[in-house]
Amino acid sequence: MPLEIDYYNLSIHKLMLQDRVRCEAFSKAIAETITPDCVVLDIGAGTGILSLFAVQAGARIVYAVERTDIAKLARRIVLENGFENKIKIFQNDMENVELPEKVDVIVSEWLGGYGA
Questions:
Q1: Is residue 2 part of a domain?
Q2: CA-CA distance, 19 to 88, in Å (whole number)?
Q3: Share in percent of the chain as helix, strand, coil (round to 5)
Q4: Which of 2, 36, 106, 113 is a Cys-bridge partner for 58, taking CB atoms 3.0 to 4.6 Å apart?
Q5: How confident is the model at residue 6 (pLDDT cuts 50, 70, 90)?
Q6: Average pLDDT, rounded, for the chain
Q7: How many domains does the chain have?
Q8: Whole-angstrom distance, CA of residue 1 vs CA of residue 66
Q9: What is the pLDDT of residue 57?
């Protein structure tokens, strides 16, 4: 029986954010991939950590798509970090989102804390 992950529950996001090795690996991979002026799509953005890494790596703009109410927290995190002009949050299913432009890079981490 497959594990079900409740992405509406903030505790799963807290576990993923506290995993230093995981976060450092994502940060490094994104920094090695993103070039200045890249347009990035973050699918299943959660709290927006990968979107933040992409902006820090030089992305021109990040479109972060998150279907759950965690998108509200992601908006707050983006605002509190001063990236509201660089990260646009869409609370919706990816299939229902029409992006304003073509993207160069897609980032996503859909395994949650159970990827190991």
A1: no
A2: 25
A3: 40, 15, 45
A4: 36
A5: very low
A6: 84
A7: 1
A8: 26
A9: 96
